[in-house]
Amino acid sequence: MGKDALIDVYNDYKTIDISVLFANTQERVRQIFETTNFFEEVPRNRVFVSVSDAVDQAELEQRRKNEAIIVQMKAAPKPAVAPPVAKSVGQKSVPTGDNALMTAQSSASLATGVEFSIKDNTAKEGAIQRKNRVPSKSNIHWDDLDKTQ
């Protein structure tokens, strides 16, 4: 009979967490549901007289489900993030584990002779021995460039 097929559809989709709503049911169909065991298998709040009532119910259920998911996400503990690890030669600092940065010598500091501290946001000239520079053929010297900045 047709009602058994509807019950099977309802139960099959229920097992995979999909809500089935029966909408726009005629009065005669609802009477058959009342006189048979249909409402023993399918709750009464799954049968609607109009499509708009069924849509309103589906939207309400979806909103409640989303709110429950949001509450669960907020209550869940946040995963611990591992501190970053130096992976390149040019990185100027490495984590020590207690939110402090330990300066490390980089290839850039070897070439320029300037050590930059991220923790203090300062540059220290002369922290590393400067190599003698080859004189430039242009009129601009390295020391002049430092003064213009």
Automatic annotation (TrEMBL):
Name the SUPFAM superfamilies on file.
Answer: SpoIIaa-like (SSF52091)
The UniProt entry, under PROSITE patterns, shows: STAS
Compositional bias, Basic and acidic residues, is annotated for 140-149
Q: Note one Pfam family from the annotation.
A: STAS
Region (Disordered) location: 127-149
**Residue ranges of the STAS domain?**
1-58
- What protein name does the entry list? STAS domain-containing protein
